[in-house]
Amino acid sequence: NAIDITIHIWYSMIVTGQQWDKCIEIFIKLLHGKLDLQTRKDFLFEFGKLRIYTHFSPKTSDPLSGWDILSVDQVNHGAANDDLYGKLFFYLREQFGMFIDRLQKLTINFNLYDEDALKLCKKFKNKRFDRIYVNNLSDESYIGIKTTLTEFRPLLNVNNPNATLITLFKDWLNSIPESDQGKTMEGVIYKKIDKYKRGWAHNSSLLNANNVMTKISNFIIEASNEVNALYDHAQEFEKYMEKKGANETAKQVGLRRRTIHKIVPKRVGVSMKEDEQNNVLSLEDDRDRHLRFDVGMQTFLERYAEWEIVA
After folding, report:
1. Are 129 and 164 in contact (CB under 8 A)?
2. Which of 82, 102, 208, 275 would suit a FRET pair with 117, their CA atoms being 20 to 30 Å apart?
3. How far apart are CA 66 and CA 61, in angstroms?
4. Spatial distance between the Cα atoms of 23 and 44, rounded to a whole number of angstroms
5. Among residues 10, 64, 3, which one has the least CA distance to residue 34?
6. pTM score
7. Contacts of 190 (CB under 8 A, 6+ apart)
8. Per its UniProt entry, which superkingdom is the organism in (predicted)?
């Protein structure tokens, strides 16, 4: 929700005259609506032919959760190094600036629908698309991968050899198998132990029974948090795809899953380089580790799949 306020603050900085007054009006009403968490606020604002509807439910969210935290952290102007929300403002202003620049140079049409995904497929039955991203609609808690492939395949543009359906799986692996979890945890501990040994040796005069146990406890918690990111679950994912009939369904409808991705990484934070796509995360940098685990919202069990038309 705070992102909405950020957008309107930024937008009000680049308009003049009556639009400035209108933006101030929007901001005041939005802010008032967001502070009143007990009611739902619906507003309509008009800029000539442009009509903006806002719908806010009584809930809160962290604006950082919707953006790449490492990209936000790379902002090196306008905010202190550890002021991530300040950096987010300048990061968004840059992104929106590029977005508006592209809008002015290109012809782009936006069609927004509030429809059930399967009903929307039927509404689009005469349209074809070069790229379709369905988020985690393919999770079993929604419509599943078989239905996703069957319903969205006809919407891909057969005349474009690069036409792609992108699926995200969030709930495919509830937990890492205990045997693998133990092995991964052991690897994490071995990697971290030298660092902790050096730190403890340097501060040995300050150690006592209580803070030693605290440090060990923190050490184990840190290691546990890294297991998901460092666990190589590629084989587990292949088994899941087979179990859910994804490969067979793809073959039936004329799709195949890419072994080398062209658009999105297979896992959050993993390189797109061809020979590194199946790697696990590298967390050697302490700040990256902090941003991913303490600030970021990923579980690191998410997996993407790209599907292309079989020629």
Report:
1. no
2. 102
3. 10
4. 12
5. 3
6. 0.68
7. none
8. Eukaryota
